[in-house]
Amino acid sequence: MNQKNSNPYDLKTKKDEGYLYEEKPSGYLDADELINFLNKRKILIDRADNLPRFANNNNIIMAKLKRVGKEGSTPTIYKIPTDTKIEEILSSMKNNNNSLLGRKILEQKKEKILEIFDKAPSAAEYQKRIEAAVGEKDKSKIRDEKNSKCETKTSIARKVAQSLGVNCNRKLVQSVLTDRRSSKLDKLNKIV
Protein backbone atom coordinates (compact mmCIF):
# COMPACT_ATOMS: atom_id res chain seq x y z
CA MET A 1 0.00 0.00 0.00
CA ASN A 2 1.33 3.42 -0.97
CA GLN A 3 1.82 5.84 1.86
CA LYS A 4 0.33 9.32 1.45
CA ASN A 5 2.88 12.13 1.17
CA SER A 6 2.32 14.27 4.26
CA ASN A 7 4.52 17.08 2.96
CA PRO A 8 3.78 17.48 -0.76
CA TYR A 9 4.93 21.12 -0.91
CA ASP A 10 8.35 20.53 0.70
CA LEU A 11 7.70 22.67 3.74
CA LYS A 12 10.22 22.41 6.56
CA THR A 13 10.16 19.07 8.37
CA LYS A 14 11.35 17.88 11.78
CA LYS A 15 14.85 17.39 10.34
CA ASP A 16 15.11 21.14 9.73
CA GLU A 17 15.92 23.37 12.65
CA GLY A 18 12.96 25.46 13.80
CA TYR A 19 10.62 23.56 11.52
CA LEU A 20 7.39 24.72 13.18
CA TYR A 21 6.28 28.15 14.24
CA GLU A 22 5.03 28.14 17.82
CA GLU A 23 2.78 31.12 17.07
CA LYS A 24 1.72 32.71 13.82
CA PRO A 25 4.30 35.40 12.92
CA SER A 26 3.22 38.80 11.64
CA GLY A 27 2.78 38.90 7.89
CA TYR A 28 1.20 35.42 7.81
CA LEU A 29 -2.46 34.37 7.61
CA ASP A 30 -4.19 31.10 8.41
CA ALA A 31 -6.44 29.43 5.81
CA ASP A 32 -9.67 31.26 6.70
CA GLU A 33 -7.93 34.62 6.93
CA LEU A 34 -6.24 34.09 3.56
CA ILE A 35 -9.55 33.19 1.90
CA ASN A 36 -11.18 36.34 3.34
CA PHE A 37 -8.14 38.41 2.29
CA LEU A 38 -8.27 37.10 -1.29
CA ASN A 39 -12.06 37.36 -1.58
CA LYS A 40 -11.88 41.04 -0.57
CA ARG A 41 -9.47 41.55 -3.47
CA LYS A 42 -11.86 39.89 -5.96
CA ILE A 43 -9.98 36.58 -6.07
CA LEU A 44 -12.83 34.17 -5.48
CA ILE A 45 -11.99 31.03 -3.50
CA ASP A 46 -14.63 29.03 -1.71
CA ARG A 47 -12.83 25.85 -0.59
CA ALA A 48 -10.09 25.77 2.00
CA ASP A 49 -9.08 22.17 1.25
CA ASN A 50 -7.35 23.15 -2.01
CA LEU A 51 -5.68 26.23 -0.56
CA PRO A 52 -2.17 24.69 -0.28
CA ARG A 53 -2.33 23.70 -3.97
CA PHE A 54 -3.56 27.19 -4.90
CA ALA A 55 -0.72 28.77 -2.85
CA ASN A 56 1.86 26.45 -4.38
CA ASN A 57 0.64 27.11 -7.95
CA ASN A 58 0.75 30.87 -7.36
CA ASN A 59 4.08 30.93 -5.47
CA ILE A 60 2.61 32.09 -2.17
CA ILE A 61 5.02 31.22 0.67
CA MET A 62 3.68 28.65 3.14
CA ALA A 63 4.85 27.40 6.53
CA LYS A 64 3.63 25.02 9.23
CA LEU A 65 2.26 26.13 12.59
CA LYS A 66 2.55 23.98 15.70
CA ARG A 67 -0.65 22.00 16.14
CA VAL A 68 -2.65 22.40 19.34
CA GLY A 69 -3.72 18.98 20.62
CA LYS A 70 -3.12 15.56 19.14
CA GLU A 71 -5.85 15.33 16.49
CA GLY A 72 -5.89 16.70 12.98
CA SER A 73 -3.20 17.77 10.61
CA THR A 74 -0.57 20.40 11.21
CA PRO A 75 -2.05 23.78 10.22
CA THR A 76 -0.52 25.64 7.29
CA ILE A 77 -0.02 29.40 7.36
CA TYR A 78 0.48 31.61 4.33
CA LYS A 79 2.57 34.74 3.80
CA ILE A 80 0.44 37.71 2.80
CA PRO A 81 0.80 38.14 -1.00
CA THR A 82 2.01 41.48 -2.36
CA ASP A 83 -0.17 43.70 -4.52
CA THR A 84 1.75 42.74 -7.66
CA LYS A 85 1.26 39.05 -6.83
CA ILE A 86 -2.48 39.65 -6.38
CA GLU A 87 -2.66 41.39 -9.78
CA GLU A 88 -0.78 38.46 -11.35
CA ILE A 89 -3.18 35.94 -9.77
CA LEU A 90 -6.21 37.98 -10.87
CA SER A 91 -5.12 38.15 -14.50
CA SER A 92 -4.33 34.44 -14.49
CA MET A 93 -7.72 33.54 -13.01
CA LYS A 94 -9.67 35.79 -15.37
CA ASN A 95 -8.40 33.84 -18.37
CA ASN A 96 -8.90 30.42 -16.80
CA ASN A 97 -12.42 29.07 -17.25
CA ASN A 98 -11.97 26.54 -14.42
CA SER A 99 -11.67 29.13 -11.64
CA LEU A 100 -14.70 30.75 -10.00
CA LEU A 101 -13.68 34.14 -11.35
CA GLY A 102 -13.03 32.65 -14.80
CA ARG A 103 -16.50 31.07 -14.94
CA LYS A 104 -18.04 34.40 -13.98
CA ILE A 105 -16.04 36.17 -16.71
CA LEU A 106 -17.04 33.47 -19.24
CA GLU A 107 -20.71 34.25 -18.65
CA GLN A 108 -19.97 37.96 -19.14
CA LYS A 109 -18.14 37.13 -22.40
CA LYS A 110 -21.12 35.16 -23.69
CA GLU A 111 -23.53 37.99 -22.88
CA LYS A 112 -21.24 40.56 -24.52
CA ILE A 113 -20.90 38.39 -27.66
CA LEU A 114 -24.67 38.21 -28.00
CA GLU A 115 -25.06 41.93 -27.33
CA ILE A 116 -22.55 42.88 -30.06
CA PHE A 117 -24.01 40.35 -32.51
CA ASP A 118 -27.58 41.55 -31.95
CA LYS A 119 -26.63 45.23 -32.50
CA ALA A 120 -24.71 44.52 -35.73
CA PRO A 121 -26.38 45.05 -39.11
CA SER A 122 -27.02 42.00 -41.27
CA ALA A 123 -24.36 41.13 -43.84
CA ALA A 124 -27.02 39.25 -45.84
CA GLU A 125 -28.95 42.51 -46.38
CA TYR A 126 -25.80 44.20 -47.68
CA GLN A 127 -25.15 41.23 -49.96
CA LYS A 128 -28.63 41.64 -51.48
CA ARG A 129 -27.91 45.34 -52.05
CA ILE A 130 -24.59 44.46 -53.71
CA GLU A 131 -26.28 41.98 -56.05
CA ALA A 132 -29.00 44.53 -56.90
CA ALA A 133 -26.49 47.33 -57.59
CA VAL A 134 -25.80 48.15 -61.24
CA GLY A 135 -22.32 49.62 -61.58
CA GLU A 136 -19.03 48.28 -60.27
CA LYS A 137 -18.46 51.56 -58.44
CA ASP A 138 -21.76 51.21 -56.55
CA LYS A 139 -21.01 47.57 -55.74
CA SER A 140 -17.57 48.51 -54.42
CA LYS A 141 -19.03 51.30 -52.27
CA ILE A 142 -21.68 48.99 -50.73
CA ARG A 143 -19.05 46.25 -50.23
CA ASP A 144 -16.79 48.70 -48.36
CA GLU A 145 -19.72 49.80 -46.20
CA LYS A 146 -20.59 46.16 -45.48
CA ASN A 147 -17.00 45.37 -44.44
CA SER A 148 -16.83 48.40 -42.14
CA LYS A 149 -20.23 48.02 -40.45
CA CYS A 150 -20.90 44.26 -40.31
CA GLU A 151 -19.24 42.01 -37.75
CA THR A 152 -17.11 38.93 -38.26
CA LYS A 153 -16.37 36.33 -35.58
CA THR A 154 -12.89 37.80 -35.19
CA SER A 155 -14.13 41.39 -34.87
CA ILE A 156 -16.68 40.35 -32.22
CA ALA A 157 -13.93 38.52 -30.29
CA ARG A 158 -11.70 41.62 -30.46
CA LYS A 159 -14.48 43.89 -29.19
CA VAL A 160 -15.28 41.52 -26.31
CA ALA A 161 -11.60 41.28 -25.36
CA GLN A 162 -11.24 45.04 -25.47
CA SER A 163 -14.37 45.81 -23.45
CA LEU A 164 -13.84 43.16 -20.73
CA GLY A 165 -10.02 43.23 -20.66
CA VAL A 166 -9.69 39.44 -21.02
CA ASN A 167 -8.79 37.03 -23.80
CA CYS A 168 -11.53 36.06 -26.22
CA ASN A 169 -11.28 34.17 -29.50
CA ARG A 170 -13.43 33.49 -32.55
CA LYS A 171 -13.96 29.85 -31.53
CA LEU A 172 -15.85 30.97 -28.43
CA VAL A 173 -17.84 33.43 -30.56
CA GLN A 174 -18.69 30.63 -33.00
CA SER A 175 -19.82 28.23 -30.26
CA VAL A 176 -21.97 30.86 -28.51
CA LEU A 177 -23.61 32.01 -31.73
CA THR A 178 -24.19 28.46 -32.98
CA ASP A 179 -25.73 27.56 -29.64
CA ARG A 180 -27.95 30.63 -29.15
CA ARG A 181 -28.38 32.36 -32.53
CA SER A 182 -28.04 29.53 -35.07
CA SER A 183 -30.90 30.81 -37.26
CA LYS A 184 -29.29 34.26 -37.62
CA LEU A 185 -25.71 33.31 -38.53
CA ASP A 186 -26.10 34.91 -41.96
CA LYS A 187 -25.76 38.27 -40.15
CA LEU A 188 -22.03 37.56 -39.88
CA ASN A 189 -19.78 39.06 -42.52
CA LYS A 190 -17.64 36.53 -44.32
CA ILE A 191 -14.69 38.36 -45.82
CA VAL A 192 -13.71 36.78 -49.11
Description:
The protein is mainly alpha-helical and 192 residues long. It has 2 domains: 28-94, no CATH class; 100-187, no CATH class. 50% of the residues lie in helices and 5% in strands. The protein is built from 8 helices and 3 strands, in the order βααββαααααα. It has helices at residues 31-40, 51-57, 83-94, 100-119, 123-132, 136-149, 153-164, 170-180; strands at 28-29, 62-64, 76-79. The protein has a 3-stranded antiparallel β-sheet with strand order 1-3-2. α4 packs across α7 and α5 runs antiparallel to α6. The longest helix is centred in the middle third of the chain and has 20 residues, at 100-119. The mean pLDDT is 84.
Q: What is the count of β-strands?
A: 3
Structural class, by secondary structure, is mainly alpha
Radius of gyration: 27 Å
Count of separate DSSP helical elements: 8
- Total count of domains: 2
The stretches of 5 or more residues where confidence is low (pLDDT under 50) are none
Q: Strand order across the biggest sheet?
A: 1-3-2
**What share of the residues lie within helices?**
40-55%
Shape verdict? rod-shaped
Quaternary state of this entry equals single chain
The overall pLDDT, averaged over residues, is 84
How much beta, percentage-wise?
Answer: under 5%
The CA-CA distance between the termini, in Å, is 63 Å
Main beta-sheet annotation: 3 strands, antiparallel
What is the ordering of alpha helices and beta strands?
A: EHHEEHHHHHH
